[in-house]
Design a protein that fits this description.
24 strands; TIM Barrel; 8-stranded mixed beta sheet; D-amino Acid Aminotransferase, Chain A, domain 1; 3 domains; Glucose Oxidase, domain 1; globular; 34% helix; 21% strand; 23 helices; 609 residues
Amino acid sequence: RAISYRHEKNFDHFIVLASVTIQKMLDPESAGVMFTLNPVTGATNEIYIEGSWGVGETIVQGKVDPDSFIVQKPELNISSRNINNKKLMTIRGATQGKFSIADRASATEIDVPLDIQNKPSIDDNTVKLLSDYAVKIEKHYNKPMDIEWVLEKNSHQIFIVQARPETVHSKPQNNNEIILKGIGASSGVSFGPVNVILDIKNTTSFINKQVLVTQMTTPDWTPIMKRASAIITQSGGATAHAAIVSRELGIPCIVGAKDATNILKTGQEVTVDGSTGCIYDGKVEIQNKSEIQSSSFESESWPITATQIYMNLGSPDLIDKYKVLPFDGIGLMRLEFLIADKISKHPLKIIEDNESDKFVNELFNGINKVASTIFPRPLVVRFSDFKSNEYRKLEGGEKYEPHEENPMIGWRGISRYISSDYQPAFRLECKAIKKLRDAGMSNVWVMLPFARTIPEVKETLKIMQEEGLERSDDFKVWLMAETPSLVIQADDFAKLCDGFSIGSNDLTQLMLGVDRDSELLHSLGYFNERDPAVLKAIKSLIRAAHDNDITISICGQAPSLYPDFAALLVKEGIDSISANPDSVIRTRRSVAGAERKELLRLRQNSNSE
C-alpha cells in the first residue's frame, strides 16, 4: 500500500523514509469508534460514540448492533443513550496471558454471555472520558476526527488505537474565517448578504435571497422566511419555530447563534452551513449535501417499504419542488402556513371585516394545489394550531387573544375549536375542507391537534359534522398524539378517530416536563425524544392503535436522524413515518434497512424454534 501511495503521489521511493510502529496488543473488554461530530447530521456540537463487547472489528464489519451515545459539547453531557442487544463478540486467544502475532490471526467470534448482552458495554464515566479524549484529539488536529478506541480488560484503561480525519461531513480547508457558530437546524449551504431585523414591523427593507438574522421567529415571520436564502436566529433550539419551518421550507438554518444580531452586520456577505452550524465570512465553496438538490430523482430506484413514508409540507408553493421525492403521501400539512402567509390576518378579524369567503377561498386554493398535485396519494391537513402569542401577532390579533404566561400549554389546538370565542373561525376551516371534498379531492383528510380530553374531541367532531364533515371510508380523521392523557386513554381516543399521528416534539416535552423552547434544558440534554419514558409512550400508542384497528404515524425528525429510532418504530409495527422534505430519502433508506433486519430477525427466530 505504501509503494502504491508513493507512486500515485509521485514521491521518490528512495527519499521517503519508512518507519516501524510498535504497539501493544490489547485484550479488550469492549471497543468501538467515536466521531467528534454527529456522522448522521453533521452537527459539530455533538460527539457520537459506539461500543460493543470484545474486539472492535465486530462493529466495523456490521455484525452487531452496538451501543451508541451522543454527547453534547462543550459541557460533555450525555444527551442520548441507546443500549442494544449485543449477541456477538470477537475475542483473541492468549498464550500465558500474552498476545502474539499468531493469536491475532486466530481471532474468533463467540456468543456474548446472556447476562451481559443487554448491559451497556461502557458506563457513563467511560463515555465522558472518551468524550474528553475526543475533544482533545479534535483540537490537536484542528478538524473533525474518526477515532477507534479500546477499553483494556485488566487495567480498565482507555487506549486510542486510531485517529483519522472524518471524511463525510468535514469541509475542505479554506481561508475564510468562521465568524460565528450555532446549532445546525436545517441542512444546506447558502451564500448572501445579511439583513439583521429585530422587529417584524421592519421587514420592508428585506430583499429576496438575503440571509435573515433575527432574535427568534414566530409564525408571522413565515412570509419573509420564505424569501430568505438562509436563516440565523440568536436563540432557540432544534425544535424552535425557525428550525421546524426552515426544514419544511428547505432553507438552511442555524439557531442559537449567540449574539448574532450584534456580531453580524446588515450588508455583510456570509456563507451559512446549516449542517454544521458554521457561519463563514465571505463566500466559501462547500458541497451542498441537501438531498433535495438532486435533479435525478425521477430516474432513481427507491427501496419499497411496507412502512409508508409520508412527507411533511409547509408552504403549498413548495409542492412543485418536492413532488419528485419518493413519498407515499403528505402526512402533515399545517394550516398555519397558509393563514400566516396568504391571509396574515386574525381569523376573527376576518369575520369582523366580513371577509369569511376570502379566508375559505385562500385555504381552499392552497390545499387544492397540493391535493391535486399528489392525487390520489393522501394529504393529511392539520387544522390550525397557533398558540395565543402567535395569533396575537397576526393583524388584529391583539383584540382577540389573551396574554398567557405559558402559551405552549395554553389555549391551543382543540380547546380553541370548541370555545365559543373561537368556534366561528374553526367553522371556516371546516368549510374550506368541505369545499375541497365537494370538488372531488377525496384524498384530503384532516387531523386534530393537541387532543387533551375525550369530551373535547367528541364536541369537535360534532361541530365538524354540522359543517358536513363526517368520518367515512374515504374521509379519515386523525388525532395528534401529543399529550400524556391521550397516551393513558389511547383505547378510548382510538374509538373516536381513524388514526393517530405522534407529535414527538410536544409528546417529549410533556412526558419529560421539559419546555421544548428552553435553550438551557436543551444544552443540558433534557430534551430527548429517545428517553425511555418517551419510547415507552410511543410503544404503548402503537399497540393501542392496532388493538383498535386504526393506523398510527409519526411526524418528527428523530426517525431520520437516528437509525435506531426508525428501527424501533419498524419493530413495533408503525404504519407510516412522515419526514421533512430534506430527509424523505434518508428516512426511506433507513426504514428499508430496518425492515430487512427485522425480517432477518424473525426468520432466525423461526428457524431456532
